[in-house]
Amino acid sequence: MPIEIRWHGHACFEVKNHVALVVDPHDGTSIGLKPPSAKADIVLISHKHFDHADGLPYVKKNGTVVIDKPGNYEVKGVKIVGIPTYHDESRGAKRGSNIVYLFEIDGIRFCHLGDLGHVLSEEQARFLRPVDVLMIPVGGTFTIDARQANDVIKQLSPRLVIPMHFKIPGLNLPITSVESFIAGKENVERVPSNTYRLSREIIPAKLKIVVLSPP
């Protein structure tokens, strides 16, 4: 059964096969977008800022398991690890903490960096590797920018990269577009949809960047 990756804008993703996992649900209205339309079995929240957590009521249903702290978890057969990082380059002094999540579905290792504000330490990178699919912020201002994102990609050596947390139509946050991140890169696919289907057999052997369309 293929895994469906659906981008609900900003940093909110739904990763779904027989289990629906949602990361960082925004509420839509407060950032100028539509709220996410998913119903999740599992919700991962990287930090409690409004644009990453206030959409929780939109995606919860009876029995939804919400994870918002670092640690090791297994929910409905999905193995999840949350590791503590920072929302800035000053060890959280400016914007607080952030959780990077690593989760495995059908043998595919996904990593969602939340609002990572710094290049990873070698210890963090070593802990997270190997990564098959990396969801990485590239818009700067509140997170790493395009240049730092390139550094993190080198650290983690993912096979598929999905940029997030960048300027899209309607978004009212002062961040940059995806263009500076993908400029000059090879093997970039712009998908005319906010949905991408993936299975273990079709993960690219070398790095591929997939830019999903806004919902």
Write the layout of secondary structure elements.
Blueprint: E1 3-7, E2 13-16, E3 20-23, E4 42-44, H1 50-53, H2 56-59, E5 65-67, E6 71-75, E7 78-86, E8 97-105, E9 108-112, H3 122-128, E10 133-137, H4 146-156, E11 160-164, H5 179-182, E12 188-190, E13 195-198, E14 208-211
Parallel strand pairs: 3-4, 4-5, 9-10, 10-11, 11-14, 12-14
Antiparallel strand pairs: 1-2, 1-13, 2-3, 6-7, 7-8, 8-9
Tell me what the structure shows.
- The protein has 215 residues and is of the alpha/beta class.
- It is built from five helices and 14 strands.
- It has helices spanning 50-53, 56-59, 122-128, 146-156, 179-182; strands at residues 3-7, 13-16, 20-23, 42-44, 65-67, 71-75, 78-86, 97-105, 108-112, 133-137, 160-164, 188-190, 195-198, 208-211.
- Strands 6-7-8-9-10-11-14-12 form an eight-stranded mixed beta sheet, with helices on one face. Strands 5-4-3-2-1-13 form a six-stranded mixed beta sheet, with no helix packed on it.
- Strand 1 (3-7) and strand 2 (13-16) form a beta hairpin.
